[in-house]
Design brief:
The structure holds 2 protein chains of 2 kinds.
Chain A lengths: L4 E3 L4 H10 L3 E4 L5 H6 L7 E4 L9 E3 L3 E5 L4 H6 L1 H6 L1 H8 L4 H6 L2 H7 L6 H8 L2 E4 L3 E3 H4 L14 E7 L3 E8 L6 E10 L2 E7 L7 E2 L1 H9 L3 H5 L16 H18 L2
Parallel strand pairs in A: 1-3, 2-3
Antiparallel strand pairs in A: 4-5, 5-8, 6-7, 6-8, 9-10, 10-11, 11-12
Chain B lengths: L16 H5 L15 E7 L5 E7 L1 H4 L4 E6 L35 E2 L5 E7 L2 H8 L3 E6 L6 H5 L14 E8 L1 H10 L2 E9 L11 E7 L4 E6 L4 H13 L6 E4 L15 H13 L3 E4 L2 H5 L8 E9 L5 E13 L26 E10 L13 H19 L3 H8 L6 E2 L5 E2 L4 H11 L5 H10 L3 E10 L7 H6 L8 E7 L5 E5 L8 H13 L6 E4 L17 H28 L6 E4 L2 E4 L5 E3 H9 L13 E6 L8 E10 L6 E11 L6 H21 L30 E4 L17 H18 L13 H12 L1
Parallel strand pairs in B: 1-12, 10-11, 14-15, 20-21, 27-28
Antiparallel strand pairs in B: 1-5, 2-4, 2-6, 3-5, 7-15, 8-13, 9-10, 9-12, 13-14, 16-17, 18-26, 19-20, 19-25, 22-23, 23-24, 26-27
Helix pairs in contact in B: 9-18, 14-15, 15-16, 17-18
The chains are: A alpha+beta, B alpha+beta.
Amino acid sequence: MNDFTYHAPTSLDDALAALRGGDGAKLIAGGHSLLPVMKLNLAAPTDLVSLAGVPGLGDITDGGDSVTVGAMCTHADVAGSDVVRARIPALAAMADGIGDAQVRNAGTIGGSVAHNDPAADYPAACVALGATVVTDRREIHADDFFQGMFATALADDEVITAVRFPVAARAAYAKFANPASKYAVAGVMVADGAAGVRVAVTGASGDGVFRVAEMEAALGASFSGEAVAGIAVSSDGMLSDTAAGADYRAHLVTVMAKRAVEACG
Amino acid sequence: MSANGSGIGASVKRKEDNRFLTGRGRYTDDINLPGQLYGHILRSPVAHANIGGIDTSAAEAAPGVHAVFTGKDMEGVGGIPTGWLIHSKDGSPMVEPAHPALALGKVRYVGDCVAIVVAESREQAKEAANLVEVDYQELPAVASIEAAEAEGAAAVFDEASNNVCYDWEVGDRAATDAAFDEATHVVSIDVVNNRLIPNAIEPRAAIANYDPATGDYTLYTTSQNPHLVRLLLGAFVLGLPEHKLRIVAPDVGGGFGSKIPHYAEEAILTWTAGQLGRPVKWTCERIDAFKSDTHGRDHISTARLALDADGTFLGLHVSTKANLGAYLSTFATCVPTYLYGILFAGPYTTPAVYCEVKSFFTNTVPVDALRGAGRPEATYLLERLVEKAAVELGMDRVEIRRKNFIREFPYQTPVALQYDLGDYDATLDLALEASDWAGFEARRAESAARGKCRGIGISTFIEACGIAPSAVVGSLGARAGLYESGSVRVHPTGSVSVFTGTHSHGQGHETTFAQIVSDMLGVDFDAVDVVHGDSAKIPFGMGTYGSRSLAVGGTAIYLAVEKVIEKGKKIAAHLLEAAVEDIEFENGSFTVAGTDRSKSIGEVALTAYVPHNYPEGLEPGLEETAFYDPLNFTFPAGTHIAEVEVDPETGEVDVVAVTGADDVGRVINPMIVAGQLHGGLAHGIGQALLEECLYQEDGQLQTGSYLDYTMPRAADLPSFSINHNTTLCTHNPLGVKGVGEVGSIGVPPAVINAVIDALRPLGVNDMAMPATSQRVWQAIQQAQG
C-alpha cells in the first residue's frame, strides 16, 4: 500500500474541498471496497477523504411514502433500523444478508452504491424499489445512476449524501451467494410498488444491475412464483468464474426470482 | 492408573487457552529482537521462466534498504533437501533435482523465491522489492498432471524425463492379476483427489539472528518440528553444527502439515542474518501464503475391485498419478507412496492388493503433507469403490462392508502393514445406531415433500498413525528416525516440568501430557507444565504430524515417568529403611508394601536434591529422559456416516447430519479429542464440498485468495454426533492410537457417497470433489439430458 494523505473533514464543504484538492483523491466511507484494492496496489489514491466526521450523513428518516437512508449508514444500521424494518422490510433483510457481521458493521450504503460492484446487493434494491440517489448537488434516479460495472453517474468530485427509497407494497430479495466470498452470484430483488412490478438482478451480469422485462410483465399479469419459474434469462454477457459459469448464473437468476416472488407472500 | 479429576480420561480445560483466549500467546510475529531488519521475499509472478538477469541496483538505493540478495548471492549454499528417498519399480532412485533456496537461473512456480530485500521497515522492504528488475524469459508451463505427462510437455527439470519423479509400486501384481482372473465381478472407478490449500490461521513467519560474538544462530519459525528444521537447515543447507543453531517454534497457530517442511524462507532468513550480522524478520502475507505454503492431495486415480459371486473382495488394483509440484518438499515423496499405497487393505480382508503410483513435477506450489497425508486419498478411493461395488452388485452397502471386514488380529495385510487390533463391527454398529440409519427412508420422504433430495453415505476405514519403527521406515527410504523423546524433571518441591520433542500447534499437548504425568506421579495437574518447541530446551524431537504425538511422544513421556518412579523407589526405600522391592508407588506416595509407612513424591524429590540422607552410589536429582521408538504404527479405525439434503434447483448441498463412531484408542482428554474430531470433520467436509485449488493452464493460481478459495464455515456444518468404541493399542503402554486426522480421512467419501445417494433417483451416478453447487447442478442437467 502506498503512502497517502488522510483527511478528516467535519463538513460537507470541507470534504468537497479536500476531494478537489488532490489529483488522486478518493472518498472513503466504510472502506470495505477501497481498502482491499489499495492493499493489492490496484488503487493508489494520493489522498483519502473520510466522511466519518461529516454530520448528517447517518440518519434514517421516515418520509411517509419513502424512507431516506443517510449515505454513511452501515449495512447493520439499515438491517437494524426500526423504520426500515417497518416500512421496507425487504431492504432491511437484504442489508442483513450482506457479507458477514464485520462487513455489515463497517460497510456503508453510500460506499456500496458509489462503488457499484457488479456483485453488490444494494444496486438491485435501488433499481427494484425505484430509489433516488441524493448527492451534494442533485438527485439521480437509480435507473440513471448505475451505468455498468464500477461505473455510475457520479462526477469525480460528487458526494452521495443519502438514498431515498419509495415504500413498496411488497418486496423481497433472494440471493445465491458465492460460497467463498459471499458476494452475490445471482441476487434478485422483486418489488411491487408505485412504479409497478420491478425485477432487478445483481451479481450475474458483467454490466452490473439489470431488470428483466419479461418477468416484470409476467408478474404484472400474475404475481406468483410460477409466473417467472419458466422464464429463462440469456447467459450472454453473464459473468463467469470458478464458482459459477454463465449458464449456471443465468439459471440461478430465474430460481432466485421465483424465490423472491414467493417470499413476497 | 487411576482417573482423578484431572487425570487420564478427564475433560480438563486446556492450560494453553488462558494465554490464547486472552491474546497473550507468543507467536513468531510477536517476537521482536533489538536491531532487527525486515526481509521481504520477492516471488516469481510467472510459473516457468529462465531468469535472464536481475537488476537490484534501484532497490538497493531505495530508502531504508540494507541489502538485496538473489540466487547468485546464495550460490554455494546447499539446496533444500528432501526427507524420503523413493525407488521406482525398476529399482532406480527417484529423480531428485536441486532446490536452491533462492531461484538460480530459472523459476518454476508462481511464488518461487527470487530475492530477499532487507530494509529498516516492512513497508520499505516491500516497496523496494517492486524496484527489483527481473528479466523473466517465459517458458511453457505444466500446471497439472495431465499437462506434465502430455507428449512434448515442457520439462520442469531437464533431468526428469517426462516430468516423472518416480514410478513406484507396492503389493503383489501377479497375485492381484490372478485374483481378477478368478473374479465373477469387476467394478472400476476413476477418481480425482482435489488439490487443497492448507490455510493455517497463522501465516508462516520467521525471525533469524546471528551473534558474531559466539557464532550462534537462532531461528524463530512457525514449525511443527523445530529439531527437523535444525537438522535439515544445519546439516544440509548452511553447514552449521547443531550446537551453533537454535530453532524455536513458539506458539504456532495451526499447521495441518503445511508447517512440517523445512522451507526455503527459513534458510534465506538465517543466511541473511549471518551476512548482515543483524536479526532479520519475515512474516508471510496471506496472499503469499496461498502461493507458497505447501499444498495437499492432487491425485488422479483409476482402480478396479475384483469380487466373487457373493460379494467377497478378491483383489484390488490401483493406479495413481500424483502431483508433487515444482520441487520436492520435505515429505512430498512419501505422502503418495508409503502413506498412501499401504492403506489399501482398509478394514477389509482383500487377499491381493496392488498399487502403483507415478509422481510428476509440475509448475505449481510444492505439494506435501496435509492433514491425513495420503490416507484421505486412499480412503476416499477405496470407499467410493466399495460403495460403487454394492450398487453394481445390488448388495446392501453396509452388508458388503461387513462381509469383508477383518476380524482376526493381528492381521497382516498384503500391502506391508500389520494391524494389531480393531473391532470394525463395533464401530459400524455404533454408527448405524447413532445415525438412525434404519430410519433414513422416512427422512428421505420428508425431504422429498419439501422438494429436496436426501441421501445418506457411509465410509468404514482404518488409518495408520504414528509412523514407525525407525528401522523399517529407514529401509523404505526415510532419511530420519521416527522415534520421540520425553524428559520429566521433578523439581525439589515436587512440581514437574515435562519436555517433549513433539510440538503443539492446536493439539493441546500442554494439557494432555500434563494429565498423563499428573495421573502417573500423583501430583496436581497445575503442578505440571509441558515445554516444547525449543531445540535449546528439548533433548531431541521429531515433531508433530501423522497423529503421532500421543502415541509416540506421549509414550516417551510415560517411559520417562516410569524411570522417575523407579529412582524414587530407591530413594524412598532408603528413607523408609526398606528393600526397594518392597516399595509400592501409588497416588503420589511411595509405601512399604503392607504397611502405612510412606513418603510422598514431594519428600522424595526434596531428598533427591538435598541428598543429606541418601542411598550410597545413587546420583542426586530427579530427572529422567526416555527415547521411544515404537514397534509399529497405530491403527485407529471407524465408521463415518453423512446425511445430506440437495436442492435440485440450485445444486446446493446441505450436510444435515454427520455421525462418527471412532476407535482412537484410549482417550486422555475427551474434550480435546472431540475438538480434534470436529476439526478433522470440518476439514474433510471442506474437501468434499467446498475446497479446490485451481490453476490456469499457464500456471497462474486461480484460487489465490478467500474471494475464490472456499474454506468451510460454521454455517456449512451440522452439529456432529461423536461416538467412541475403544480397543487399546497393543504395543504402547497407554493403549493410545491417534485422533488428529480421523475426520479428514474418514468423512469425505461418506459425504460424496451421500450426495450420489441423494441424486441417484435423478440419474446421477458419479460426483467429483468438491461437490460444489455448480458441479451438482451440472450433473443433474447432464443426467436429465
